[in-house]
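Input for the complex:
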Amino acid sequence: MNYGIVLKVLGSILIVLGFLMIPSFVIALVESGPDRTPFLITILLTLAIGFFLFFKERKEKSISAKDGLAIVAFGWVAASLLGAIPLYLSGVTENYVDAFFEIVSGFTTTGATILTDVESMPAGIAFWRSFTHWIGGMGILVFTLALLPALGIGGFQIFKAESPGPVTGKIAPRLKDTAKILYITYITITLAEVLLLYLGGMSIYESFIHTFGTVGTGGFSNRADSVGAYTSSYIHMVIAFFMVASGVNFALYYSFFRGRVTDLLKDEEFKLYIGIIVIATLAITVDLWLVSYHNFFYSLRDSFFQVASIITTTGYSTADFDQWPTFTKGILLLLMFVGASAGSTGGGMKVIRILVMLKLIKREVGKLYHPRAVMPVKVNNKVMNNETIARINSFLALYIVLFIVSTLLVSLEQIDLISAGSAVAATLGNIGPGLELVGPVQNYAFFSIPTKLWLSLLMLMGRLELFTIIALIAPKNWRIDV
Amino acid sequence: MKAMIVGAGKLGTKLAEFFVAEDMDVTVMDSNIKVLERLNEHLDVLTVTANGIDIKMMRDLNIEAYDLLVGSTENDETNTLICTLAKKLGCKQTIARIRNPEYMEQIDFIKSELGIDHIINPDLATAVAMEKYLMKSYSFYTDDFASGKVQMVDFNIGSNYEFANRKIMDLVGLENLLITAISSNGELTIPNGSTRLNEGDIIHIIGNTKEIEKFSHRLGEDYHRKLISKVMILGGGNVGYYLAKRLCKNKIQVTLIEQDRQRCQELSEKLDNVLIIHGDGTDIHLLEEESLSSMDAFIGVTGFDEENLLMALMAKQSGVGKTIAKISRSNYIKIINRLNIDAAINPVYITASSILKYIRGGKVVSVSLLLGGNAEVTEIILDKDLPIIGKSLMELDFPKGMIIGAIVRDNDVIIPKGNSVLLENDRIVVFCLSDDLSGLKMFFKQKKGGFLSELWNRS
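Predicted:
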């Protein structure tokens, strides 16, 4: 590994991070909150480290694939370590590990919280916590890529590692332009939602907080009852719509705006994604209507919101879905694994992988009847090559293994299996709330420190497509190649 | 500038590398996804898996927004068709690679009727470069600039006592010449006065053509100085054919050895006055029978780099004056300099140079890529609006990998010193390592880089 360039790029990430903390600091200043000094200290510290690394290290010719992976993994860990400092210093969390968990949960757009009382948080901290969703949603490195000139060789590696999904394509010849297009789309969607929420009667501050949580598919709120704190169905629907919109591959929006409307409707992943949402919503609506709500409209409203929230791995809730019928909870648990589309801000396994898996199953069945048939797996009329399929398979296998092993580890906390399992599914899939003890009105505060650290690791793995972090942990990759 | 390259073979990949270095938006199209995946890992380009003749795909990619399309697939017809289609769909300029000699004979008609702006023929370009070299009276490799007024020579100092183990400032007889670069063991560096030369280094010298000739005569005693009259060509592919044809015109006796019986037949029909031998070119007895040792030059242009290299070495050992090998892969560059071969010519670089010159257009007169592609020599006419006009070289803080080799002003060749001043309409020959190409652009193009890119490049 080429430590020089890794440290230099890390430096530039930290500089960007330092500047990104400034809005929260300004809010803290305006509100004269207790979080002013913590923010100031953290910004100065982050910038100092950032500039130090940036100017100390010499520019190298290029970044190798390995360096790219290290940059992504270290970048996220470093951003979380520094981003957690304001929470700890302002006394919002009791210890630093809690603060770290909270900010990892923010950056990875999970939305799992260890705070027992979110409403008493200083305004600056609440803003920062939600803002990390927004940054993490599209990726802090993609943001850095958009600002910095091409990182040369390996830049694509960084982009690939940070952008969710098995097949990452650029939408412009240059990485920098691709990153810019993605961020422009992202900012447009963000501003649209802020405006619509503001028009629905939410304060501008809360509109921002909930928009960050929505478009980043994070799920942090400054209200204990999450979105349920607002009674307006309009607000519920605006948020639900934007959650669904943020779970769509952003590259599709780009071709949509360039006038290729049919691309969106023809995209197989998009069709399956919408299909799952419709079917799950209908199934839950009927279940809620007959078993608990006895009112069709409210059943439809709440089930659509919850399905949108879970499949996009946001984690907002308008009702305590832990109290809903078992069948409904089962569907929601399944949706936690499905996740959003590739190239979106959402987490989970990603719809495209499920799609490929279904097609593989279909192919195997077909081969039983026609053993010598040649049946390539096609997505959007393009043949998927075997390596991509193999990568998808090993991803799914690793996901399951991580889920099982982690559930076992978390069950050491002496909690029931549903709580343990859903806590793991909700962190690995970057959703946030699970069921039972970690349900929507509960929180993660009761876990022990080792468990919190393990869950933080799961969140990072989930956000960075598992392999990035695992590759970094493998000690083989630590050697310096001369 | 937006460019599309269709066909990611050796040429397509190299072009993509050069275009990226030129700061262009590059899209590469190929039907082989594996090649593209590999490309994507080390180049910042957009890759598209598709067939270049797919009109719908071309439309989807918004081809009318492209300034340039290069057809560099294996197939001449495909390239032509792609270029014509792209042009009709609105692409501003198209360049096609065409190798078939029969097409080349009617190339002007093809160009004008099919809307192709520029045709590149790597085989022909290679043959021309080889011919140019063979016609020179000395045996090290040279390149011409400023319509022949300035030359650059690559000279292997071997163990010549005048050079080896001396510092550059102690060298005598180099007053009007400039050593722009030293390549030792394949590593190129730009020297200063206190750089010490080692045995076996190759020095790249730029200067007035007359001075260069004087220099070469002084050193040339142990080289063949008589003109070439007998040449042996190994390999009867397109390059071999073009070269044989051109040499014939210069009244040179050519012996061409080709392995394939049918190809021999074809060649013998097309080429008059060339002795076509059917046989295995690696068979040393055959070569000796055809009196290899009495040849003035030996050229290896088979499809195999290894064969070309080894047979050229063998020929050198048998006492042939000039030996040239065609090398298509850049992998061997580092060792070639150490081998006793007079010139190794890479068709890909020759072609890429001509395309680069074409796209830089206007004030750029010529571009030559050095073997290995890790440096280039560019000839530029200075525009009056450039910020460097009127400044002396000392004031301009050029990057380490860039040096001005010569200034041509009103037909005079000036070898620049620290106090030389650049004026409008000067024709300059710049030697630049590829790592510092961005510097070339910074100084000789009016281009505004962002603050951040400035910061990144400087620190």
